[in-house]
Specification:
Largest sheet: 5 strands, antiparallel
Structural class: alpha+beta
Distance between the termini: 56 Å
Helix content: 25-40%
Number of helices: 11
Oligomer: single chain
Low-confidence stretches: none
Strand order of the largest sheet: 8-9-11-10-12
Mean pLDDT: 86
Number of strands: 12
């Protein structure tokens, strides 16, 4: 069954059940790395707030044998338990959001189409883009800052960068842990790890969401107690974290990049999480930020 056929039968089933009020609008949005997300928007008369659900998961579940009735019941539960935002002010102004501006790091080449629509700064094979943390609405989430939103805010790249440099380390504080500790945290044990597991430090943030942006923090190197970052390779594991591995003097960058490429191509890493196949010395990242980030934003080098 095609996705279009799925939306047709889903629409008919929702209409027959009668538990969701409003018009159903099916659209798609461009996400990270050129990946499109399919959505169902429920538009009710008399309100500017419309619930939106990602349908890709439900489509895959349906193809896997999950019943249409069960899917509709799940959708109804999600929609009908949404908080009441009818009195919430969603208007954007610089004064209102300036303390919620953050930046994240994405791959430049994989996001050419997306980058045409958003303010950004390029460095190395990355791009820095800006988002609004919806903490100012007491809602968990992020709003991507497009060129249109930047115009509404009445600011430019310099103001966005200055705000993000201050806010991101505060709103998304860095978290570091050795890779075996992270595996234990995620899997509940490390019994399958070899005894001579190399020293690899995972650098992310407290939420483990867009944590690779920690390499932009002014105090990044001071936050790493376990390693001397000057002697480290930085492996962009995903948009959510980077890995630090000590340079043992054997000039093994090519081997590390082969490993990264293999992991990116042969594991179940979601397409939207890919960051880079490149490996950098920390000094190269620091120099690129000094040469490209701050001048591009009209700020002084720190």
């Amino acid at each position: 069954m095609t996705y279009q056929e799925f939306t047709n039968v889903l629409s008919n089933e929702i209409a027959l059940r009668g538990n969701i009020k409003g018009d159903l609008i099916f659209n798609k949005t461009l996400k990270n790395n050129g990946v499109f997300c399919h959505n169902m928007v429920i538009k009710e008369a008399g309100t500017n707030i419309s619930p939106s659900l990602r349908l890709d998961y439900f489509y895959d579940e349906y193809l896997g044998g999950r019943s249409l009735s069960d899917i509709c019941e799940c959708i109804e539960s999600v929609v009908n338990t949404q908080p009441d935002f009818s009195e919430t002010d969603f208007s954007l102004s610089w004064k209102r959001v300036k303390d919620s501006i953050i930046y994240v790091v994405i791959n430049r080449e994989s996001n050419e189409e997306y980058l045409r629509e958003v303010p950004h700064i390029d460095f190395l094979d990355f791009s820095i883009v800006f988002k609004i943390d919806t903490i100012f609405l007491n809602i968990a989430g992020m709003i991507s800052i497009t060129n249109e939103i930047m115009d509404v805010l009445g600011v430019g790249i310099a103001e966005l960068t200055e705000a993000a440099k201050k806010n991101t380390p505060l709103l998304m504080p860095i978290k570091t842990l050795l890779l075996p500790d992270m595996i234990e945290e995620l899997c509940g044990g490390r019994e399958h790890l070899p005894g001579d597991f190399p020293d690899v430090l995972v650098c992310t943030n407290e939420d483990k969401h867009y944590g690779a942006s920690c390499i932009l923090y002014d105090d990044f190197s001071e936050s790493i107690d376990e390693f001397d970052v000057k002697d480290c390779y930085v492996i962009p594991s995903s948009v959510h974290e980077v890995l630090l591995i000590k340079d043992d003097g054997s000039d093994n960058r090519d081997c590390l990049e082969d490993m990264v490429r293999c992991v990116n191509e042969e594991t179940d890493l979601p397409e939207t999480d890919f960051l880079s196949n490149r490996v950098y010395k920390f000094s190269e990242i620091k120099e690129a930020l000094a040469a490209e980030l701050y001048p591009a934003a009209g700020l002084s080098v720190v």
